[in-house]
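Handout, page 2. Input:
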Amino acid sequence: MEEGRRKKEEGRGKKEEGWVAAQRGYRRLIAWQKSQALASSVYVALRQERLPHWLEDQVGRSAGSVHANIAEGYTRSSLRDYLRFLDIARSSLAELESHLYFMANNNLLDAGTYAELDKSCSEVGNILVGLMRSLTAKLKDGSWNRLSEEAAEYTAASAWDDLLPPSSFLLPSGEGQEG
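Output:
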């Protein structure tokens, strides 16, 4: 009986290789993929340093919150909720960047590691802003349909790049806000 049940369960769904997630849903989003990689890099960096428990906990939570909020927002039924969660992810990213700066400034993080992580924070922040701009435009024109969206339609490169410093995640006033 047990063997028959196991065979039946083995046949369900497609098997994924190793820990690589299937490219579906929020996992297709470049913002989620990059923030997931950033959280992993932060985790590795934290394991290499001797930090006060409170700081290690806060840094880990802020790093994990970025990709978690992107995923949670993606699964919401309304575009306004999705944008709200992306904004929360952006705020968690700013918190992470602040903690990393504090650690580097107090010699708790190697300068080279800080530079790499700060660069990744900037990249994720710019991609998040690009995603938020794209979704905000769809909110305004009513064209959003998550179920029919293909690959990501946004990019970190835009006309705003000259206006935003590399580590800035701020949207122009009014953009991406409910109203």
